[in-house]
Design brief:
mainly beta; six-stranded antiparallel beta barrel; two-stranded antiparallel sheet
């Protein structure tokens, strides 16, 4: 269940969602992790029928802790994580992140 380090070339920043104050969401301090980033804009429907515009898919090591609603910064642009799903690859499971294009 190991992701080859050569694939993880792009540093991204992950910030855990810690709650919401009256003026917006709050996040923990950013943590840098290495990822394989594929940028591509696409529109799909979410589980509750909402329209989701995604702009990147990031593959990270399975030990990275991330949930939907956390914030991720890729190439200087911050966005919210729409969903987290395992990605199958070469008989192994790695953690995958699907990032939204909404305000982050």
């Amino acid at each position: 269940m190991r992701v080859p380090g050569l694939l993880l070339r792009t540093p991204i920043l992950l910030e855990r969602h810690t709650g919401n104050r009256g003026d917006g969401d709050t996040y923990a301090a950013a943590v840098q992790v290495m990822a394989d980033v594929k940028t591509s804009v696409r529109v799909s429907n979410g589980p509750e029928g909402q329209t989701i515009t995604t702009w990147a898919t990031c593959t990270v090591r399975p030990t990275v802790t991330v949930t939907a609603g956390d914030r991720v910064t890729v190439h200087g642009v911050a966005r919210k994580v729409a969903s987290v799903a395992p990605i199958q690859g070469a008989g192994r499971t790695v953690a995958g992140l699907l990032l939204t294009a909404g305000d982050g």
